Amino acid sequence: RLVGEMQAGVEGDMSPRQLTDKQVVRLHQLLHEVRFDDPKGDHLSPAGEYNLRLGVMKELAPDMIATHQGDVRVFEGHAFIVEAAVSVGGRDIKPGINVHRFANRIPLLFEGGSDVITKTALKRINWASYKINQ
């Protein structure tokens, strides 16, 4: 389809070195206009809520845990799935609410407590109504 949109003299099997300056500019414009379908995410292998829950329970032995696996999302052409676990208590861990985040099995590491999830969990939820002391 791109070759068809190009100016005359461009073939599908041409080397980029054979393009004129004018053709390169036109190709650049076309690539900015074209829209490719987002990847489906079939190639991803998330840990899954069940395995995430088991892993946190095995390693931290929390008093309470909740897990969630999001849907496939795409950012700049890259598909990802975010998985999160929220736990309270546990061995060798700071008291209060602990948030564990993963994207495609990779921990999302950044300054703890500065992310939206933690701020929401600490500020917008009335934990006292659940008889939980932060």
Automatic annotation (TrEMBL):
Domain of life, source organism: Eukaryota
DNA topoisomerase VI subunit B transducer domain ranges (all copies): 39-134
Annotated Pfam families: Topo-VIb_trans
PANTHER family on file: DNA TOPOISOMERASE 6 SUBUNIT B
Identification of the protein by name: DNA topoisomerase VI subunit B transducer domain-containing protein
Organism: Volvox africanus
Source taxonomy: Eukaryota, Viridiplantae, Chlorophyta, core chlorophytes, Chlorophyceae
